[in-house]
Specification:
The complex is a heterodimer of chains A (112) and B (326). Chain A has four helices and three strands, in the order H-E-H-H-E-E-H. Chain A is globular and about 60 Å long. Chain A has a single domain, classed as Arc Repressor Mutant, subunit A, CATH 1.10.10.10. By secondary structure, chain A is α+β, with helices and mostly antiparallel strands. Helices cover 68% and strands 12% of the residues of chain A. A three-stranded antiparallel β-sheet of chain A has the order 1-3-2. The longest helix of chain A has 30 residues. By secondary structure, chain B is mainly alpha-helical. The two termini of chain B are 46 Å apart. In chain B, helix 5 runs antiparallel to helix 6 and helix 7 packs antiparallel against helix 8. Chain B contains ten helices and four strands; from the N terminus they run αααααββααββααα. Helices cover 68% and strands 4% of the residues of chain B. Classes of the chains: A alpha+beta (112), B mainly alpha (326). Chains A and B meet through helix 3 of A and helix 2 of B.
Chain lengths: 112, 326
């Protein structure tokens, strides 16, 4: 049961993480800082999943990456682009609609 | 420079080779692992890096997440692979038969070349597995190219022959099936015992009772011994297969037993076909009759070989498809 739940959770997270990243990157952040930010919110993200996702979002022009070499260690900072903001708005609409649908169905079940 | 980290990155790089952004991907992972190790345990050491690397995941899995994960053959076409390969192989097999019977080669450039396989029949038998692999590869290549093209192509689905991808698991044995299995085993044990007794008595299985009143061997000693051995091994293998299936309810074991029996049968058919008919008979037989008998036997054995090969492939597919018991 736990394994099955874990595998469904992974599937659900796949799309949700894109939305989370687009929301978080309203302020510039690099990969490890993002992992910590999610952890502070009690949301675990697999590190090896986050970086490939960042690359895909960057390729699609939804975020923009820039290497920062002035600090002690090179870090790639990302920020959401205008196209990313549009996408985020669309994804938020979908997410709210999904939430409304589920809440509505749960209420109906309770009254039945 | 941390050796364990660089080794880890090199392994990831191995799976990413060819990708333009490889160096950038590795730099980002390096930066992440070093920073995490320092955040968790102070200045990075081999031990702290090992811990972070282990949590990051095996190199292949990490690299795979960067790949687009497109299948080599689109899922919708995967069922066509075995179907088309088996149909192509059937055509290929027919050409092999023609080559043996008509003693000539066939070429349909660049798709097919079947050499003249009539002189040494065992060549025809050993040619078939290679022909199947070539057919399988050719079909896989076409399906790969169709997948890569990204076009919506509806491939025909011929409705004949057996479907390897629709093979069913054998049903659990009923009481009637068990009784029939037992009867078969008894018959096979009796046949094997009779064959062993004949060989012990006459040194060959192939004897005839002529007017002289004595049993005479039909074949010359050397081929007679070889062919008798072929039949004895076939009977022994058949008996062993039935006995194992009778005393075991494991379907996995049954598949393995069938695969072993089919393989033995193919080898033995090859050995039988290798006998030169000119030197076979120890009794006077008209030359035309010898040619006719030999030609018919060759065709029969090749057809049997085809069915055995189909059963072999079916059992390999069944075995490959079985899930481990939960």
């Amino acid at each position: 049961m736990d394994n099955e739940l874990g595998s469904i959770e992974t599937e659900m997270k796949r799309g949700f993480l894109q939305l989370l990243v687009l929301v978080l990157l309203e302020r510039d952040a690099y990969g490890y800082a993002m992992v910590r930010a999610f952890r502070d919110l009690d949301y675990e993200v697999e590190e090896n999943t986050l970086y490939p996702l960042l690359r895909r979002l960057e390729k699609r022009g939804l975020i923009q990456g820039k290497w920062e070499l002035s600090e002690e260690r090179p870090r790639k900072f990302y920020a959401v682009t205008a196209a990313g903001r549009d996408m985020r708005a669309g994804l938020l609409r979908i997410w709210r609609k999904q939430d409304e649908t589920i809440q509505h169905m749960i209420k109906e079940n309770q009254h039945a | 420079m941390h050796k364990n980290l660089e080794t880890y990155l090199e392994e990831i790089s191995h799976y990413l080779s060819g990708r333009e952004e490889r160096e950038e991907i590795l730099s980002e992972i390096r930066s992440h692992i070093l920073e995490k190790a320092e955040q968790e345990s102070g200045p990075a050491t081999a031990a702290s890096l090992d811990k972070v690397i282990a949590a990051y995941g095996p190199p292949r899995r990490v690299a795979e997440k960067y790949l687009d994960g497109r299948p080599v053959i689109a899922p919708a076409y995967q069922r066509h692979l075995f179907r088309y390969a088996s149909l192509l192989f059937a055509v290929h097999f027919a050409f092999v038969m023609f080559s043996v019977v008509f003693k000539r080669s066939f070429t349909i450039f660049p798709f097919l070349y079947v050499p003249d396989l009539s002189s040494v029949i065992v060549d025809a038998i050993s040619y078939l597995p290679m022909a199947f692999l070539a057919d399988f590869g050719a079909v896989a290549l076409v399906l790969y190219l169709i997948t890569r093209s990204g076009k919506e192509i509806k491939l025909p689905w011929p409705k004949f022959a057996s479907d390897l991808d629709e093979l069913q698991e054998p049903e659990a044995k009923t009481l009637a099936a068990r009784i029939w299995n037992m009867v078969e085993a008894v018959i096979m044990v009796a046949l094997s015992a009779w064959a062993f007794r004949m060989v012990a008595r006459f040194h060959t299985l192939f004897v005839a009772h002529f007017d002289s009143g004595k049993f005479q061997p039909l074949f010359k000693p050397a081929p007679g011994r070889t062919l008798s051995l072929v039949v004895l091994i076939m009977l022994a293998a058949g008996t062993a297969t039935l006995l194992i299936k009778m005393f075991s309810s494991s379907r996995r074991l049954a598949c393995w037993v069938d695969i072993a029996a089919d393989t033995v049968a193919l080898v033995l058919i090859g050995v039988a076909l290798r006998q030169q008919h000119g030197n076979l008979f120890a009794v006077d037989v008209p030359a035309r009759l010898v040619t006719w008998v030999y030609g018919s036997l060759t065709v029969i054995l090749l057809v049997v070989a085809l069915f055995v090969a189909i059963d072999l492939v079916a059992n390999v597919v069944r075995l490959g498809r079985r899930r481990p018991a939960r």
